[in-house]
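Example record

Each entry pairs one chain with its bound ligand, zinc ion.
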Amino acid sequence: MRGKLILISLIVMITFMGCNKVKTIEDLNGVEVTFKKETQLLVRDNGIGSVRAGETVEVIAENFMKFQIKKKNGDIGWIKRSNMPIGKTAKVGRRKDWGDRSLYSEAVYNPYNAGDKIISEFDKSYDGEEVIILNDMENGGHHWAQIKLPDGKTAWTLVRYLEPFGKLGETASQNRFNGGNLWVYNYNKLLNKGNGKDTKWLVKKYGIPSGKIEKLNGKDFGAYYYENIELFKGKGSGRVVQFEVKDDVIINVNITGFSDGKISAWLPLSKMMRGFGFGNTYRNLPNILFGINSAFEADGPIDKILPGILFIPLKLVIAIIAIALALIYTMLPIFLVTLIVSIRSMNKDVSTGSLILIQGILGVLLGHLWFLFLIYHDSYFYQEPFLAILFLPIIGSSIIAFMMKTLEYNRCEKCNYWGGFGIGSIWLNRHTSTKTTTTKTYKGDILKDTKVNKKTTITDTFKDLRKCANCGHEWSIIREETK
Ligand SMILES: [Zn+2]
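Structure tokens for the complex follow.
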């Protein structure tokens, strides 16, 4: 269920973030920490340390999402801001099997080597640097590596932040987290795009590879691996893409870990809709919202100019505008078709039947194409297709149906004026259907109980009578009501 309404909540969240003034590091030194919730869910990622609820810690650094804290025993780790509500009391959710301890949420933290610098996914200062793997170990279900940085320091990091093919004593480069960007391509498209280009182009376009091999087994060429490209071949797809590289030039593209078919791949026109390549420009569009938000953050440029009493209502207005923009963005073609049909409906030469047809056909067709476009070109929707389904097929088709019905009921089919009003309704007939299901309960081999469930559905058919206020024309619409 992770983030099923991530888009809306994200917009609301980022817009409101900053309403509460964030305390500075000095303020937080040595505060009592009360953990807000059970953090088991977040440990999945990379949390392996633990801290007691109410334990006094020192806050040594902070970033957008997290605090870096130091325990009294010297252990250092990162904790999500929302799990450390400063100055508030909150109940700690506890997992019985963890005793009286809560866990660091998403902590990038190693209890055995607290003196070493910990590289987290938020520390980008070592992006792409060549490091030497000194040691590795399993801890808390995670695979850790001790590495030597170019400046001579040693550090521990999760192995998955390193080139996954590095071995002890070999060099590796840190995997870059490129803001959750995910590219979706048809296989041939990427092959044509990449073949003959050099590795500089590759890194510039898709970021530091998640893996790199100098020489493939028994081959005279190596490979770059990317996990932020989903490649479709037929109805199946794969998320780990291998670029074969010889003398710094791409010579072939493969899908490794070719996996499950995506339902979306079976939808009509889906291959065509994956065929566009808008690159970074379009994919970064949602980030504009983050940019707007940072201007409104506490102690941000706008916060400093405006008095607090104006700042909060202003943020509310911005939040409403952001939600409206998100709605328009997700259902762009539906609104567009509705707008076109509305404008056309003012023209008396255009028949109501043709408007209903345009609303239905164009709405469904463009809605379908936009649905495919959104899931293939917007990382949010690709990872949360439920959201795209909610907006387009569910809310979108309701808007289309509503508009069709409005035209049918209110626009006169004879003179084409918006003059329709109700002059009554005639009940035509009732249709009753009963569905019977039998449930048998056995005890051993002996029949103990038989239950017969009857479910009755009643459907009434009505004839709604309409009259035109302009020309007096009368027409009727058949309507069914199901109970
Ligand atoms: Zn009329």
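The radius of gyration is 30 Å.
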